[in-house]
Write a structure and sequence with these properties.
CATH class of the largest domain in chain A: Alpha Beta
CATH architecture of the largest domain in chain A: 3-Layer(aba) Sandwich
Number of helices of chain C: 11
Chains: A alpha/beta, B mainly alpha, C alpha+beta
Number of strands of chain C: 9
CATH topology of the largest domain in chain C: Alpha-Beta Plaits
Order of helices and strands of chain C: HHHHEEHHEEHEEHHEEHEH
Distance between the termini of chain A: 51 Å
Radius of gyration of chain A: 21 Å
Oligomer: heterotrimer
Strand content of chain A: 15-25%
CATH architecture of the largest domain in chain C: 2-Layer Sandwich
Distance between the termini of chain C: 105 Å
Number of strands of chain A: 17
Strand content of chain C: 5-15%
């Protein structure tokens, strides 16, 4: 019996069109625009100026505060300007524009192809290396990894959970990483285990990737303390609270973090980035991005440098199809629609999906028929129909009592609703208002 | 001019289930019962059903277009479902004008005054039916016997339903065993050869519909099973206490409208609770009140009233039987 | 009359009498003392319960007026001077002079001036669109056109113009209660001093980007050039964050800034028409900006 989380969940069509496409290295673009905020927390502070000559892997913005991250250049060339650009938040934010010239890397980076399994650094040095290399969570949340690895005093971690689930339809970047770079990933996991001081790591993978499960299980036998677990295919299995519940049956309390039940969760992509940072001294400036869509000529998985405009990826996948109606950064359930192809790829971009016009329009909403399906599918056991009504009418205190802040915006409710009501739109509005109200209350 | 892309908040994909598909799924589930009603009651069954459906649609159209001036929603299928269910609660020889009045009450008063689909607290078909029962008691309580396919409309041979036979007989002081001989046997009751309303007679047709609804995931098992289970348990207790005054549980489940009510009327989305725990309490309540009315009340059949009474409690159940949130117990406990 | 009916009448009457006596005593015992003047003031107030005074409703405002030392800072914008004077008379206090206000929309980005760069397909709610992205145009400060303000107005003073896709505020109905100001997620509506003949001069823009991006996004955006500041002899215009702002208290309606503005960002409302000279100036300056 495959493990799964007990409450809620949906089965959207998987559409893993690129599951068997090997990772291709995208050629370096002609110019990049590297945003200074590619992570949760304070944006980084720019330390270069117009006209500076930059090398690949050089720090161009430094972290500000504890929950922040360094930003490195992904190319070599000259800084043309430091200006605003539209990013995937839908607004303009500051970025460093670089005109590319060649591909000269910083010499401290080890570019040899062998996998280095011996870990020479101690736990504190590993965490410092993660901070210096700008490692953030590559599952999409982009939380600075050094902050996650720094366990607050009084709390203990006993198991490291690795998220190889990739439950979003269409996305296959983690899948390919696990198949093609399995030793690097496992070494990265061992590095993380050393940093946390744990001797057990559990990798969760959804059952629609049997080749990855098999491959990983075989090679993991050479690594101490790492076990691989196959999970039932159900969205959102990749959400960390649901992953924890399925793998070790611990329930993270409402309003708390996984460390409160003794666990830390990291994505496989992050483990790979940690391997490169710690063993090869390579900062985070490129990642695997799935470029896919039903009308695309050559959908595939590409290793892309951060700052590359989305336009270049679409070109590499065969050019923009005529009938494209919507471009989404991320997965179809939680991704953000882009209003321009100038938007640059950042550390959190896991995929670019091109939807044809027939699938881009929202259906017309009808009245709520009180069928209760939204409640059945909510993985946090909330009541989306009620939260939508409360947020729509401005009854935010009541919404707070109904624990609207527990919502992780997975989209299962909006997906399921037969009346096609925009449940998640209003719940998001309610959440942001309630969080703001709570913050103002705490300040008083 | 570069292309304008669509922007909307996530999720960017939706399931293919729609309100319309759900409603038409219910219509499909009612087809076996519809066919058996025509086989047993003839053309009049067809006329009653069609009149009911057409009146419901017409009234919903007129009210939405001229009184409320809101966009039309008659194609979403809910008026058709109400029309069919209302018809299935009626005797097959009921005069047409009474059906029209009943449809007006069902759609106009029970559904539209509250704001249309999704806002009514009481099941519209049952409100219509109860209104007709109280306003036209004679026509609503003469039940044609299943004589087979007949083409004439009005001249049906009428007789009492099995529940009616039991109720009247017990009042007159007859013993239960003598009454049971007057009632069709279990097989006939299962297949539908008994007096009653058009939709309630054929148990097997209703069960086929139930299977289809479960397969299409339109309803869950909670409400029908808890209603029928409660009826069975409660009548078993009464039967064991005094077998001369109370009929056996199998009789109670097959007789009357409890199967139709449990599978199609009580499971109406809008008027039933939204969480499994609340659904089971709701079902138990309906089963309990049905048996009480059948055994101790004045009417031979109590399902309609039982469902309407429990409909009134549904908002309370929705408010107080909320599901336990993920992580709530651990946070508070 | 039969004994049954007689008995019923007598019993019910006695029951009613006993209930009335009990209720009277209970009402007296649990009576909450309230200043009777609060009711008097509340009767004078417009009963709109809009919150324009800053209090939760007309009754709360009445309480505040009765308990306040002076009327400083207390004003009902809906009732205006008439209502405040009446309340002052009842309480024997002075009502300070308060200038009447009117709401204006600080955006003139019609589809003609502000081209669309995407199609929004989500819920037509300004707060939701604002949370999602900059909007259907390239200006991340401008009006989203979904009408949260129109829905918030309880005095029917606003409607959405289908051609300009901007909300229109009707001066004769607007009472400056402030509900639309609170509703707009981009703070585009401002309550400005009402002038005679409903004349207004203000910067119809809220874009704080530098001149280049602002102008590229919208033809009538404020580019922060500062010409209006220089030409105003009354010191009514200030520039902050690439955006000009006209102080309504200092403005004398001389209209020099309107002609001076190269992008026609400053607009004049309800003035007599004059020669259309501004067009030529705009094109010439337009060329200069796009080249530089």
């Amino acid at each position: 019996m495959l493990k799964t989380f007990p409450v809620g969940g949906i089965h959207p069509p998987e559409n893993k069109l690129t599951a068997d496409k090997t990772i291709k290295y995208l050629p370096v673009p002609a110019s990049v625009a590297i945003p200074v905020s590619q992570h949760i927390g304070t944006p980084a502070e720019v330390i270069v100026g117009k006209g500076d000559i930059i090398r690949t892997g050089q720090v161009i913005a430094t972290s500000k505060g504890f929950v922040s991250s360094n930003v490195h250049s992904s190319v070599s060339g000259k800084v043309s300007k430091i200006d605003n650009i539209i990013d995937s938040t839908g607004y303009r934010h500051m970025a460093v524009f670089i005109d590319v010239d060649g591909d000269e890397w910083v010499e401290t980076i080890n570019r040899t192809p062998e996998v280095i399994k011996e870990i020479k650094l101690g736990p504190e040095d590993i965490i410092k290396r993660c901070l210096d290399s700008g490692i953030v969570g590559l599952g999409g949340a982009t939380f600075p990894s050094h902050a996650k690895l720094s366990i607050p005093p009084g709390k203990k971690c006993d198991i490291l959970i690795i998220n190889g689930v990739e439950c979003e339809p269409y996305l296959t970047s983690d899948h390919r990483l696990m198949l093609e770079h399995v030793e690097e990933v496992l070494t990265g996991i061992t590095v993380l285990m050393k940093a946390l001081g744990v001797d057990r790591a559990m990798i969760g993978i959804e059952n629609n990737k049997p080749d990855a499960v098999e491959h990983l299980t075989g090679i993991a036998e050479d690594f101490r303390g790492i076990t691989v677990h196959s999970l039932k295919v159900k969205y959102p299995q990749g959400a960390e609270k649901q992953l924890i519940k399925a793998l070790v049956n611990r329930e993270v309390p409402s309003g708390h973090l996984p460390i409160d039940v003794g666990l830390v969760v990291h994505n496989v992509g992050t483990a790979f980035a940690v391997y490169e940072a710690v063993q090869k001294n390579k900062p985070l400036f490129e990642r695997v991005v799935t470029v896919t869509g039903k009308s695309l000529r050559n959908p595939g998985n590409f290793m892309v440098r951060t700052g590359t405009p989305v336009r270049d990826l679409i070109e590499a996948a065969g050019g923009m199809p005529e009938d494209t109606g919507k471009i989404v950064s991320g997965g179809p359930m939680m991704g953000k629609a882009l209003n321009s192809t100038d938007v640059p790829v950042v550390k959190g971009t896991s995929g670019i999906i091109l939807f044809p016009e027939s699938e881009s329009e929202r259906p017309v909403a009808g009245p709520c028929i009180r069928c209760g399906k939204c409640i059945t599918v909510c993985p946090m056991n909330l009541e989306p129909y009620l939260l939508m009504t409360l947020a729509g009418k401005g009854l935010f205190e009541k919404a707070e009592n109904e624990q609207i802040t527990d919502c992780m915006e997975c989209g299962s409710c909006s997906f399921t609703c037969p009346a096609k009501r925009p449940l998640l739109d209003y719940i998001r509005l309610g959440k942001s208002t309630v969080i703001r109200m709570a913050r103002e209350r705490n300040i008083k | 001019m570069s292309k304008l892309f669509n922007i909307s908040p996530s999720p960017h994909t939706q399931s293919t289930e729609t309100t319309k598909k759900l409603m038409y799924g219910v219509v499909v589930a009612l087809i076996p019962a519809f066919i058996t009603s025509i086989l047993y009651f003839g053309v009049s069954a067809l006329i009653v059903t069609v009149t009911s459906v057409v009146s419901c649609l017409v009234f919903e159209y007129l009210i939405q277009r001229f009184v409320l001036r809101k966009p039309l929603s008659i194609t979403d299928g809910s008026a058709i479902v109400t029309g069919i269910l209302l018809a299935f609660n009626l005797p097959s020889d009921i005069p047409v004008h009474i059906i029209v009045i009943g449809s007006l009450v069902a759609i106009g008063i029970a559904k539209m005054t509250f704001g249309g689909l999704g806002n009514n607290p009481f099941n519209p078909a049952l409100v219509g039916r109860v209104f007709m029962l109280i306003s036209f008691p004679v026509q609503m309580t003469t039940w044609p016997l299943p004589e087979g396919f007949k083409t004439s409309y009005a001249d049906a041979v009428t007789g009492a339903t099995p529940l009616g036979i039991i109720k009247e007989g017990l009042k007159n002081g007859d013993s239960l065993s003598s009454l049971m001989e007057k009632i069709p046997n279990v097989f006939h009751m299962f297949m539908g050869k008994m007096g009653g309303s058009m939709g309630e007679v054929a148990a097997f047709a209703l069960l086929l519909g139930f299977a289809y609804l479960l397969y299409r995931k339109i309803i869950t098992w909670h409400i029908p099973v808890s209603i029928l289970g409660t009826v069975a348990v409660f009548t078993t207790i009464l039967w064991l206490i005094d077998p001369q005054k109370n009929a056996n549980p199998l009789f109670h489940v097959l007789a009357g409208g409890v199967l139709l009510g449990a599978i199609f009327m009580a499971t109406d989305y809008v008027t039933s609770p939204m969480y499994p725990k609340a659904m089971i309490i709701y079902g138990i309540g309906i089963g309990f009140i049905t048996v009480v009315i059948r055994v101790y009340g004045a009417y031979p059949e109590g399902v309609s009233f039982a469902i309407l009474i429990m409909n009134a409690f549904v908002p309370l159940m929705n408010a107080y039987m909320k599901p336990k949130r993920f992580g709530e117990e651990v946070a508070n406990g | 009359m039969s004994t049954v009916i007689l008995t019923t009448i007598i019993c019910l009457s006695i029951l009613a009498l006993i209930s009335a006596i009990i209720l009277y005593f209970v009402a007296q015992k649990f009576k909450v003392y309230e200043d009777p003047r609060i009711d008097e003031i509340q009767a004078v107030l417009p009963a709109a319960n809009c919150g324009g005074c800053g209090f939760a409703g007309c009754r709360n405002f009445a309480e505040a007026l009765v308990n306040a030392e002076t009327f400083e800072g207390l004003n009902c914008p809906v009732g205006g001077a008439e209502v405040m004077d009446e309340a002052a008379r009842i309480l024997g206090k002075e009502a300070p002079e308060v200038d009447p206000l009117v709401a204006v929309l600080k955006c003139n980005g019609t589809p003609e001036f502000r081209p669309k760069t995407s199609r929004y397909d989500g819920v037509a709610d300004c707060r939701i669109t604002n949370n999602l992205y900059m909007g259907e145009t390239d200006c991340s400060y401008g009006c989203l056109g979904n009408g949260d303000c129109v829905s918030a107005c309880t005095f029917d003073a606003m409607y959405m113009d289908p051609v300009t896709e901007l909300p229109v505020i009707m001066d004769d109905k607007c009472v400056a209660c402030g509900l639309c100001v609170k509703a707009c997620p981009r703070d585009l509506i401002e309550l400005r001093k009402k002038a005679k003949k409903d004349r207004k001069i203000y910067v119809a823009c809220y874009n704080c980007d530098k001149g280049g991006p602002a102008r590229r996004a919208c033809k009538v955006a404020c580019i922060g050039c500062g010409k209006c500041v220089k030409v105003c002899t009354f010191g009514a215009i200030t520039m902050e964050n690439n955006l000009a702002y006209i102080d309504a208290n200092k403005c004398t309606f001389c209209r020099k800034c309107v002609t001076e503005c190269p992008t026609n960002s400053i607009i004049e409302v309800n003035f007599p028409p004059r020669k259309p000279k501004a067009e030529v100036v705009t094109e010439a300056v337009n060329q200069r900006i796009t080249k530089g």
